[in-house]
Amino acid sequence: GEDVEQSLFLSVREGDSSVINCTYTDSSSTYLYWYKQEPGAGLQLLTYIFSNMDMKQDQRLTVLLNKKDKHLSLRIADTQTGDSAIYFCAEKVYNQGGKLIFGQGTELSVKP
Amino acid sequence: NAGVTQTPKFQVLKTGQSMTLQCAQDMNHNSMYWYRQDPGMGLRLIYYSASEGTTDKGEVPNGYNVSRLNKREFSLRLESAAPSQTSVYFCASSVLAGGVNEQFFGPGTRLTVL
Description:
The structure holds two protein chains of two kinds.
Chain A: E1 4-6, E2 9-13, E3 18-24, E4 31-37, E5 43-50, E6 55-58, E7 61-66, E8 71-76, E9 85-92, E10 100-102, E11 106-111
Parallel strand pairs in A: 2-11
Antiparallel strand pairs in A: 1-3, 3-8, 4-5, 4-9, 6-7, 7-8, 9-10, 9-11
Chain B: E1 4-7, E2 10-13, E3 19-25, E4 31-38, E5 42-49, E6 56-57, E7 64-68, E8 74-78, E9 87-94, E10 104-105, E11 109-113
């Protein structure tokens, strides 16, 4: 079945780049997403990438997709303390309605 | 627009009690979802409703029932709560199941079952 894996924790210094990695198993995924969850809140969509793209850039965020290795990454440039949150990778599986499969979430801690 | 709202925000139940978690969205979205979030396990889909009048099981439906009351509202019922159902529950909605399908999330309900 479908599975999405992420490491659970990442700690960086303010101003450094953060790279959060994700692997998924279903090669028929159509869209892949990054959601952000701030403490005590629901999830918000940060960015997404269509499965026929290799890269997407949006201001400080860069998403890289390696379909051969089924690997997705999110790079945050110039990480700020306000970026501290849990980041979830998710895939939308082909032909299963709107269902998303989420990873476990990576807790990003940004130290001043 | 309030977006997706959930009630209650917090709830403590005893084993065997029942309760209904309420969810409403004011974005005229067709699809609605219920997830549970547990530490180290991410979000797991409990039930979803692709459109008004339809509901389908997700990954972890046992012990839960849902009702899509109308286009706006999608409720989750625990008939006989168990400690394993202690979790944070999120409701989400999206315009359609197809396309980018951005899901908008509510603030969550933190449920403890003693």
